[in-house]
Amino acid sequence: MAPAGRLQAAAQEPDATDLPKMAAAAAAAAQLNKNPVEGFSAGLIDDNDLYRWEVLIIGPPDTLYEGGVFKAHLTFPKDYPLRPPKMKFITEIWHPNVDKNGDVCISILHEPGEDKYGYEKPEERWLPIHTVETIMISVISMLADPNGDSPANVDAAKEWREDRNGEFKRKVARCVRKSQETAFE
Predict the structure, then answer these.
(1) Which of the following is catalytic: 98, 105, 140, 172?
(2) Average pLDDT over residues 37-50
(3) Contacts of 97 (CB under 8 A, 6+ apart)
(4) How far is CA 31 from the centre of its chain?
(5) pLDDT beyond 70 at 32
(6) Burial class (CB in 10 A: 0-12, 13-18, 19+), 112
(7) 150 Cβ partners below 8 Å, 6+ apart?
(8) pLDDT at 20
(9) According to the model, what pLDDT value does residue 100 have?
(10) Is residue 91 within 8 Å of residue 71, measured between CB atoms?
(11) CB atoms inside a 10 Å sphere around CB 170
(12) Cross-strand partners of 42
């Protein structure tokens, strides 16, 4: 795993048809190396695959997630940056905007264009100008300030609204402890 906000370089021999696609993922890596973001580190899952990254997110200070070390995977589609990557927490996390299987549900990772439910404005959704940096800043912000109005995990959202300092806090504390125990496995 590379230091905070740094990505390890990939050693691979690409197929000529993959070069334009890989250029966007490589550019994302270069941008991240140029502008590291405090609170996470990133690296390739497999040095031969620029499309699958592993990130470690440090729970933001002054939040219930403080002290946690949460592992997630960021998977880029072949037509990145036209479409957003998918993000999935591998470490268990209890959060209104992370469904029970770990998939992150935030506007910046939603497909570009109009929201068929009318909840999000197009400019809140994925745009090709977004970077790994903006994604990670959004995820860290999400940990600090959940959106209970558009939950991916309805049970966590209900607890966050109704019993934030009780059951919700206990479940998050358990996830933080577990993340610390398993962070470097």
Answers:
(1) 105
(2) 86
(3) 104, 105, 106, 142, 146, 147, 150, 151, 152, 153
(4) 17
(5) no
(6) middle
(7) 97, 105, 119
(8) 57
(9) 96
(10) yes
(11) 14
(12) 55
Q: How many CA atoms lie within 13 A of 94 on its CB side?
A: 20
Q: Which CATH superfamily is domain 16-182 in?
A: Ubiquitin Conjugating Enzyme (3.10.110.10)
- Contact at 8 Å (CB) between 110 and 119? no
pLDDT at position 47 over 80: yes
Taking alpha carbons only, the member of 72, 66, 79 closest to residue 106 is: 72
Asked if the model's pLDDT at residue 7 lies above 50, the reply is: no
Q: How many residues does the chain have?
A: 185
175 catalytically annotated? no
- Strand order of the β-sheet with 40-44 is 40-44, 52-58, 69-75, 86-89
Whether the CA torsion 11, 16, 17, 21 is positive or negative: it is positive
On the 0-12 / 13-18 / 19+ scale of CB atoms within 10 A, 169 is middle
Q: What is the distance in angstroms between the CA of the first residue and the CA of the last residue of the chain?
A: 12
Residue-wise pLDDT for 129-179, tens only, equals 998 889 999 999 999 999 988 899 999 999 999 999 999 999 999 999 999
Q: Residues 99-126: pLDDT tens digits?
A: 999 999 999 999 999 888 888 889 999 9
